[in-house]
Amino acid sequence: xxxxxxxxxxxxxxxxxxxxxxxxxxxxxxxxxxxxxxxxxxxxxxxxxxxxxxxxxxxxxxxxxxxxxxxxxxxxxxxxxxxxxxxxxxxxxxxxxxxxxxxxxxxxxxxxxxxxxxxxxxxxxxxxxxxxxxxxxxxxxxxxxxxxxxxxxxxxxxxxxxxxxxxxxxxxxxxxxxxxxxxxxxxxxxxxxxxxxxxxxxxxxxxxxxxxxxxxxxxxxxxxxxxxxxxxxxxxxxxxxxxxxxxxxxxxxxxxxxxxxxxxxxxxxxxxxxxxxxxxxxxxxxxxxxxxxxxxxxxxxxxxxxxxxxxxxxxxxxxxxxxxxxxxxxxxxxxxxxxxxxxxxxxxxxxxxxxxxxxxxxxxxxxxxxxxxxxxxxxxxxxxxxxxxxxxxxxxxxxxxxxxxxxxxxxxxxxxxxxxxxxxxxx
Amino acid sequence: xxxxxxxxxxxxxxxxxxxxxxxxxxxxxxxxxxxxxxxxxxxxxxxxxxxxxxxxxxxxxxxxxxxxxxxxxxxxxxxxxxxxxxxxxxxxxxxxxxxxxxxxxxxxxxxxxxxxxxxxxxxxxxxxxxxxxxxxxxxxxxxxxxxxxxxxxxxxxxxxxxxxxxxxxxxxxxxxxxxxxxxxxxxxxxxxxxxxxxxxxxxxxxxxxxxxxxxxxxxxxxxxxxxxxxxxxxxxxxxxxxxxxxxxxxxxxxxxxxxxxxxxxxxxxxxxxxxxxxxxxxxxxxxxxxxxxxxxxxxxxxxxxxxxxxxxxxxxxxxxxxxxxxxxxxxxxxxxxxxxxxxxxxxxxxxxxxxxxxxxxxxxxxxxxxxxxxxxxxxxxxxxxxxxxxxxxxxxxxxxxxxxxxxxxxxxxxxxxxxxxxxxxxx
Lengths: 427, 427
Known about the structure:
The structure is a homodimer.
Chain A: H1 8-26, H2 31-47, H3 49-65, H4 70-76, H5 80-95, E1 103-108, E2 114-121, E3 124-129, H6 134-145, E4 149-153, H7 159-176, E5 183-185, H8 191-197, E6 206-210, H9 213-222, E7 235-239, H10 245-257, E8 266-272, H11 276-289, E9 293-296, H12 298-306, E10 312-313, E11 327-333, H13 336-346, E12 351-355, H14 359-368, E13 373-378, E14 395-397, E15 405-407, E16 413-424
Parallel strand pairs in A: 3-4, 3-6, 4-5, 7-8, 7-12, 8-11, 9-10, 9-11, 12-13
Antiparallel strand pairs in A: 1-2, 2-16, 14-15
Helix pairs in contact in A: 1-8, 2-5, 2-7, 3-7, 5-6, 6-7, 10-11
């Protein structure tokens, strides 16, 4: 960085210009070289565990000082398990097929030339994230493998850890002969840097915010660069009148309790009126046995009370609340149409499931629910890039444009058309 | 519209809510029904030519009164030729395959259930356009065929014509039994309506602005809804040292002069230094013979002057100017690398061409130029949805996310995952 670049805005602009230049090189780098850099990074991380943990200790100490909650400190911590997770993740990404250069379609023009649609990187991707420092490495690697230059802007709590990780990334790039500016960490967590970054739409082609709703909302409202949003999941499970009750119990319990703090966990349970008296008590008892608090509309509450099961009243607000906790809201519906209308109104278009043995009802649900992933007799917990065979995941898009649902390497790409002829002109 | 909905913001909000509801129905309407509505619209337009021309005459008279330029009045005019163009376009779209429901990919999960990726509509699309009234019908039909509800916001100059056309669209929808709110024209051209519209990201999933750079910039800077931008084309032609000069002449003349006012017309000409003395005079004379003004850098100017061909000096600004007119900027470059660096710096990532007989140089160019369409020995004038075999076109995206280059029916779609199993839960 030259000395005349003194203020934050110029510094961020320079980072973006360097990223743009690096992205043009990176777009045509061989898979071998990209994989070599990723594998070298895995080694470097392994070789530098004590140094990384030392930098992380600084962040943790500062976090305690600043009064971060236990959950926040937990997210911030880079322990042995998380470090080996990063290393293993890097090796997995290196082993994945390269998405760049794949031919997606070919059209033979009547005038005798060929139009080929080819997958190419998006260009420069800005990742804005909060306290988890492993995001630095995970995102850098996914962007690198997909041929994109990346600009990383991490949270201030993880600044020392992120800086140490980014240094290893730079080292892996330069040792491999790849442009060092292909991955850059913004060297300040000043808010002004992010505000500048979000307006650099000539250099940066895509912003992916990773974090809570507040961050995502701020980024989407202030960015002139297209943003791929990863909002929360308000996932609903519908037990149809033709449900197998044992299966319903198993899927509802799995969706709700397997890992309650993630976006593909169930939050709402709808039960068909015709079977609510028979099925709800069994399912509710299984949930209660796992420690789940039940919130119910008046009709479901009557059924639960008659069966001697405790519950609290559900309010209008509950239907669109992502608890991320052992709480579930229960409502009785007349049929699949009411269930679909409920989900399309209160859900977040993430993941929703029907449990039924009737194909016709299931088909209506799969077609009619406007969510990225709709399940028939499967737990919602499977919405995930690895489970979907993508091999890796940068997140789960709640947008409709570009990528929807789990985003892997292919979703980090755009395409271009290559037209090859022998002098054809437009008649 | 109920009487309590009095102010513009509530009115626009209601339009968006109605569109969202209509979109959920439309997403699962059969191809037959959608085609029936489109063909009925074609008939209705044919049956109502005098009425349409009468409404258009009002707009034209008001435009003349308001002092619109000849070019603006021309865009506004709905003459017999344009009406039959709309009708023919509608019939062509009806005949195209339905993009909705197509299976894009299937993954068999190791636990024995199936994950199918299926093409679905985006949802609600807002189209914001300027003076051409035929956009009303063209966009309504493309959105309808792709299962999307649309909200149209046309320019104030075309208000009477747009209103008359939108009435026919509503009639075609209701006669066919499709939701009438599947296509809605905002019934006011008050700027407040557009400002409200651009913030309704819960109801509207995508905004496509169609018009000049000012409109697109305003929309992208003020929208909280993802925008697919269709910016201008600054297209460059590179005549390599290994070019066939007759082919180079033919392609450069075609790209520049075939239809100078469109985005895929050539604006810059780069010539390899090794052949500039031999090739440039021939190409420049052919351009001059078509009335093209030549702007040249000093090196090219010397060659042209030595050959007795008039030219003006090209400035730094010229390299990134979209003339849309019979003007071309000419520069001498050392090699394909300099040509690519020039295009990646000054171009608009739209369409660029190399003319060469050397495959290696051409490959470097096709890979290294960061544009939606890169041509080898073909005129840039082919960047167009019809020419690319898409059957129709809503525009040419200059974005990288979602759609790049010509956008047809498939590019107006998103996808969802349908997961079908037998009770699988996450272990």
